[in-house]
Design goal:
11 strands; alpha/beta; 9-stranded parallel sheet; TIM Barrel; two-stranded antiparallel sheet
Length: 287
Amino acid sequence: MQGRTATYGELREVARAAEDAGLDSIWVYDHLLFRFPPEPTSGIYEAWSILAALAADTSRVELGTLVMALPFRNPAVLAKMAITVDEISGGRLMLGIGCGWHEPEFEAFGVPYDHRVSRFEEGLAVLLPMLRGERVDFAGRFHRADGGEILPLGPRANGPPLLIAGKGPRMLRLTVQHGDAWNAAWFGEVSQTESRVSDLREALAAEGRDPATMGITIGVNVVFPHLVTEKDELPQRALSGSPQDVAAGLRDYARAGVSHVIAACVPSTTQAMSELAEAAALASTAG
């Protein structure tokens, strides 16, 4: 929101505009703070709290987390939170998770940064069965649960679908073994994603998993220049131009096998949501 953190009222307005315009989903980031010296420290509001409010304040769009840093929360409690938000939303949650990457926020909030992938893998052993309604007994190096279970269960028997963000060999293996969808971000033109998608396809082949069973989602920066103000910070890589220009880029992603483009619009305003919806409609109807 033009160099400052948006209020919840502003986020709700944009989310409702996205829903009213016909977009498929809205997504929230999970960060505790941003610290990139010499820039001043900044931050956003806590992701689950925002997501729960949006679940109540929208009625149709899918709600996604891009992505929850699993180390920030006990995995059993995270499962409980996810089921609760899925209930509030009426079964619209896409649970996106990863192992985190911005070390300063780990340090500032006292969250261990070491062995992130190992902690993530152990966390899955608690999180996933609990989302499915199973009772969990687990004792690992980093996590434990003694008879953990979620009651009441949410609106879906197997819990919300799971999206995993990762790019290293171990994270890709875990994605292929456990995920319903995979995410990589942030990009502009589809050619910028080719090596990352290739790595995923290699991991799918190594595990013998049918690529058709894995959703490929890509985070894409979208800039509408005629809406940009001098306070807007422009990304280095983006689809940029009119709704027609952006539609052409979206068609390229569809041809490349991407199942869901997650757009970070600059600026992130109600007007931008309208123009993004126009671009999506043009992309879906063009030959």
